[in-house]
Amino acid sequence: MDSRRAPRKATPAPGSVQRCKNAGAGYAFLSPWLLGFVLLTAFPMVASLYLAFTDYDLFRAPRWVGLDNFTALFEDRRFWASAKVTAVYVLVGTPIKLAASLAVALLLNLKQRGQGVYRSIFYAPSLIGASVSIAIVWKAMFIDGGIADQAQQLFGFPAGGWVGDPDKTMPMFILLAVWTFGAPTVIFLAGLKQVPTELYEAASVDGAGPVRKFWQITIPMLSPVLFFNLLLETIGAFQVFGSAFIISGGTGGPADSTLFYTLYLYIRGFAQFDMGYASAMAWVLVAVVGVITAILFKTSNAWVHYSGDNR
Fold this sequence. Notes:
This protein is 68% helix and 1% strand. It is mainly α. Strands 1-2 form a two-stranded antiparallel ribbon.
């Protein structure tokens, strides 16, 4: 009889088997999201990065051209026009929208009857503000002979629609953005609920008025929420497209006054079939938004105060 024994097979510990089963179940539940991320986000981003360095018109195979698309951007007059329109919209519209949102949040934070009804009414425009139907209605309001035109005539202003006037199109878009202040208002309102009432009571004892309380208590305590809203609204302002497409008819007129960056990107990619150029524009936008986001985070250390921060 052979005294040698056959090697025993290693058996996994029961705990490790259970962990493997749990991990498999977890990945199975995550698989729809992972598949969607790869097919709808990651792959298109990688493909657009490649196309940004090619000449591609959707009908022929991409032809590598290196940095030619990026060089052409800086020589394109309409590119700079779209960048200017978008910059004005971001720099002017975003602060006005945030100021209006904070003002409404302060009003809704007051104790009064029917608070829930008022909050629902103010939030409602945000649910439908970005839809195509609202953009169509907004355009009808501001065309020649529309409600806005009739209202301005009552105050002695000359007739003429805002849609066809290059000097009035940007105020019209900013008004549309401000009209959809519901989402940041809800966030501001949630932040106001977290401000300790003891701070206001102590300030009242010291003789502080409403203005002093606002600047020395409300704003510092709301600074994290303000930073969050500023970040989201700034990024969102760079991406405005639907309303610009509907109101301008997809042309960016009159005189390129509604030629937002994303609209011009759409025109070059899907109207002129210059997908390589459009991909280069998309990555320039990604870079600009990334730099601005990094600047906002860097400068937030000077004015954003978190609870328990001893700086």
